[in-house]
TrEMBL record:
It comes from the Bacteria. Residues 6-142 form the FAD-binding FR-type domain. This is Siderophore-interacting protein. SUPFAM superfamilies: Riboflavin synthase domain-like. It comes from Pseudonocardia nematodicida.
Length: 280
């Protein structure tokens, strides 16, 4: 059975807020977002950026019932000079009744690095346009009875970590381990739950070592891990093999890959990860 294509909206920027030197919060609004259903705390959207800076055009849903796969084939068939860039991002906040969505972007000020989404976000202003497809479920999977939440990731995972923490009720325990470039990138994370946040500053293996050292509250653990793909795999192996957490209680998503972009083909390990995620 083909997966149904989510709704598409052309959104305009109505707010730009610098959160840290490397993170910008951008508010998007569209009548087409009114009534959009939230699907998960770490829900994701596909964002489309026109190469000429105008309104991105994407193919309409196929009429042959081929769903997402059929639509994606049509998207790839658009000549490259006209095909908008497409990138996946986490929804930081969604106000469906108002047709408003908030997305946090990692930017690379004055470095010349970063992909089309980062470059767009770095110079975005009120009235700029972006296409939005979704939201769709990412990797969270609703936990069952585990009283402890462990959230692990880098700055690309921060929007999802913040959104997840805001859903947790009072009386629940949570531990967050977040890798950022330095002290200036640390953010305030709000939650009704009891939360212990560990900020670690970037370096080879730092995130894994920080997770190894962290003390978890008593009780079964549901873990959510996202960020750079190889770091996510290493943390997941530690949680399953060394901590003894059941594989089914570890949700994991590789948001980005070192030395590769979202335009590059998936590696064998990427395919294996996706297969395991799909089977929960």
């Amino acid at each position: 059975m083909s997966q149904e294509l989510p709704g598409y909206a052309v959104c305009r920027v109505t707010g730009v807020e610098p959160l840290t030197p490397r993170m910008r919060r951008i508010t998007l609004e569209s009548d087409d977002l009114v009534g959009v259903v939230e699907v998960a705390p770490d829900q994701q959207v596909k964002l489309f950026f026109a190469r000429d800076g105008g309104i991105p055009e994407i193919p309409p849903p196929p009429e042959d019932g081929s769903g997402v796969a059929g639509w994606y084939a049509r998207y790839l068939a658009v000549p490259e000079d006209r095909r908008p860039w497409m990138r996946s991002y986490t929804v930081r906040a969604l106000a469906a009744a108002a047709g408003r969505m908030t997305v946090d972007f990692v930017v690379h000020p004055d470095s010349g690095h970063g992909g089309p989404a980062s470059r767009w976000a770095a110079r975005a202003g009120i009235g700029d346009v972006v296409g939005v497809l979704g939201p769709a479920i990412a990797g969270y999977r609703m936990p069952s009875d585990e009283p402890v939440r462990l959230l692990v990731g880098d700055e690309t995972a921060l929007p999802a970590i913040g959104a997840i923490l805001e859903t947790l009720p009072a009386g629940m325990c949570a531990v967050a381990v977040v890798e950022v470039s330095g002290p200036a990138e640390e953010q305030t994370l709000a939650s009704a739950a009891g939360v212990d946040v560990h900020w670690v500053h970037r370096g080879t293996g730092v995130l894994l070592e920080a997770v190894r050292e962290v003390r978890l509250p008593d009780g079964p653990v549901f873990a959510w891990v996202a960020g750079e793909a190889s770091a996510v795999r290493a943390v997941r192996r530690h949680l399953v093999d060394e901590r003894g957490i059941d594989r089914g209680a570890v949700a994991f998503t590789g948001y980005w890959r070192r030395e590769l972009t979202q335009d590059d083909a998936p590696t064998e390990q990427d395919v294996a990860d996706a297969t395991e995620q799909a089977h929960g």
